[in-house]
């Protein structure tokens, strides 16, 4: 039952498919309105670590995930409600295509009454772009579509052909020419991490603002209509969360090798009473004083030589493990926990060796998808996204339960205080189970 309402302009950026320019345009809009003195809160749908880093830099505000399956409707509702209390504009960037996934971007937009703008790469088509956009807009009655953003539009004549073919109910919000100066750099699992190219991104953001201002159609350059956002009473519920980690310090690995960290997970740990300290397995020689350790995902394969050569840190984590303290190792963190890691150039390096087995990168083939981690401590929702394999690992204590397939998901390993898996966990989905992982409930 809802108790209060806040109104805030909001827009949901979606597309017919991936690689249409959603992140570039969302970042451009965020920086455009931020430069005008507006507070812009951006959310990213589904499971993504890299886009939020870029969107946070563009908006100069924190960026969190919204996913009905992973977090629940009440969680998403309250995140929007809390943002609406401080923001002048809420932007949401969708994932994949408009109706892809269960739930989809359209499901989220429909649930909270947020109008959608369709971002489409229109290179190589004109009236067909209008036909596709019209089909998307009319596919479901419960989805509001504010208009079309024509990306990579070649000329004003190109834009005119699209504009004239659109129905009056579906305006052309912007026509944006291809511009390599604002295209965001990529790597094998997605966009490059924002911290690696911070100065370059600033240049691209400001170029993107100029790019937006040159559009012949100016529907994006004013704030969209306000949307009512309601409390789901989660704010009061959060005040009664049992602080299972009160008095505990959790050391979180965070550097260029380990950066796949949901802000929501950090907030969740703090809500459980934990104090967080950060360290770098790449550069630090010792662990900070802590009761538990979190090795999140990232790109250890790009830094495997440096990680292997930091023998002081490897020894410190090995000692931490031998002491039976809680360690959560997710995906890249699990690869770091294995005995060796072979990178994309077939170079093999020694890793921590706190979990038996060898890890190796495997080019473009990989595994991804939503899964529930079924652990002795409880079920925690999350996802898999990796292009590596592991071999000769111990017998798992459980497996991920796939969202839409009966086959077992990712293996979950536990020994001493270590929990390791390819799965990236979303802590707010089960705070009690998350706390138990860090409290080192040994399975030995």
From TrEMBL:
<comment type="similarity">
    <text>Belongs to the CobB/CobQ family. CobQ subfamily.</text>
</comment>
<feature type="region of interest" description="Disordered">
    <location>
        <begin position="380"/>
        <end position="399"/>
    </location>
</feature>
<keyword id="KW-0067">ATP-binding</keyword>
<keyword id="KW-0169">Cobalamin biosynthesis</keyword>
<feature type="domain" description="CobQ/CobB/MinD/ParA nucleotide binding">
    <location>
        <begin position="12"/>
        <end position="189"/>
    </location>
</feature>
<dbReference type="InterPro" id="IPR029062">
    <property type="entry name" value="Class_I_gatase-like"/>
</dbReference>
<protein>
    <submittedName>
        <fullName>Cobyrinate a,c-diamide synthase</fullName>
    </submittedName>
</protein>
<dbReference type="InterPro" id="IPR027417">
    <property type="entry name" value="P-loop_NTPase"/>
</dbReference>
<dbReference type="Pfam" id="PF07685">
    <property type="entry name" value="GATase_3"/>
</dbReference>
<keyword id="KW-0547">Nucleotide-binding</keyword>
<dbReference type="Pfam" id="PF01656">
    <property type="entry name" value="CbiA"/>
</dbReference>
<dbReference type="InterPro" id="IPR002586">
    <property type="entry name" value="CobQ/CobB/MinD/ParA_Nub-bd_dom"/>
</dbReference>
<dbReference type="InterPro" id="IPR004484">
    <property type="entry name" value="CbiA/CobB_synth"/>
</dbReference>
<keyword id="KW-0315">Glutamine amidotransferase</keyword>
<feature type="domain" description="CobB/CobQ-like glutamine amidotransferase">
    <location>
        <begin position="249"/>
        <end position="429"/>
    </location>
</feature>
<keyword id="KW-0436">Ligase</keyword>
<dbReference type="InterPro" id="IPR011698">
    <property type="entry name" value="GATase_3"/>
</dbReference>
<keyword id="KW-0460">Magnesium</keyword>
<comment type="pathway">
    <text>Cofactor biosynthesis; adenosylcobalamin biosynthesis.</text>
</comment>
């Amino acid at each position: 039952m809802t108790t209060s309402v806040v109104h805030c302009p909001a827009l949901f950026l979606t597309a017919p498919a991936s690689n249409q320019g959603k992140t570039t345009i969302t970042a451009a809009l965020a920086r455009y309105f931020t430069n005008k003195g507006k507070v812009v809160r951006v959310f990213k749908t589904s499971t993504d670590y890299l886009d939020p880093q870029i969107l946070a830099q563009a908006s100069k505000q924190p960026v969190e995930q919204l996913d009905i399956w992973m977090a629940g409707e009440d969680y998403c509702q309250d995140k929007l409600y809390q943002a609406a209390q401080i923001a002048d504009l809420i932007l949401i960037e969708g994932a994949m295509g408009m109706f892809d996934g269960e739930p989809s971007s359209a499901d989220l937009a429909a649930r909270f009454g947020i109008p959608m703008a369709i971002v489409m790469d229109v290179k190589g088509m004109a009236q067909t772009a209008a036909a596709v956009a019209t089909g998307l807009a009319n596919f479901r009655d419960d989805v509001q579509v504010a208009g079309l953003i024509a990306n990579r539009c070649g000329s004003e004549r190109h834009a005119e052909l699209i504009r004239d073919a659109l129905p009056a109910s579906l305006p052309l919000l912007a026509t944006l020419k291809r511009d390599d100066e604002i295209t965001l750099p990529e790597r094998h699992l997605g966009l490059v991490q924002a911290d690696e190219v911070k100065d370059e991104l600033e240049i691209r953001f400001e170029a993107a603002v100029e790019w937006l201002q040159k559009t012949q159609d100016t529907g994006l350059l004013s704030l969209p209509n306000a949307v009512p956002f309601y409390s789901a009473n989660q704010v009061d519920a959060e005040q009664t969360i049992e602080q299972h980690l009160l008095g505990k310090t959790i050391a979180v690995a965070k550097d260029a090798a380990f950066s796949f960290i949901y802000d929501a997970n950090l907030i969740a740990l703090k809500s459980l009473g934990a104090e967080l300290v950060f360290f770098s397995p790449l550069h630090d020689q010792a662990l900070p004083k802590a009761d538990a350790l979190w090795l999140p995902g990232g790109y250890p394969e790009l830094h495997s030589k440096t990680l292997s050569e930091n023998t002081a840190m490897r020894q410190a984590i090995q000692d931490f493990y031998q002491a039976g303290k809680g360690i959560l190792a997710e995906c890249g963190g699990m690869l770091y926990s294995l005995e060796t890691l072979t990178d994309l150039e077939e170079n093999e390096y020694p890793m921590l060796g706190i979990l038996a087995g060898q890890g190796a990168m495997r080019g473009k083939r990989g595994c991804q998808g939503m899964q529930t981690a079924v652990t002795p401590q409880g079920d925690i929702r999350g996802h898999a996204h990796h292009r590596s394999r592991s071999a000769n690992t111990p017998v798992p204590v459980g497996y991920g339960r796939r969202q839409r397939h009966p086959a077992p998901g990712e293996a979950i390993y536990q020994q001493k205080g270590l929990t390791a898996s390819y799965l990236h966990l979303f802590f707010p989905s089960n705070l009690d189970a998350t706390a138990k992982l860090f409290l080192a409930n040994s399975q030995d």
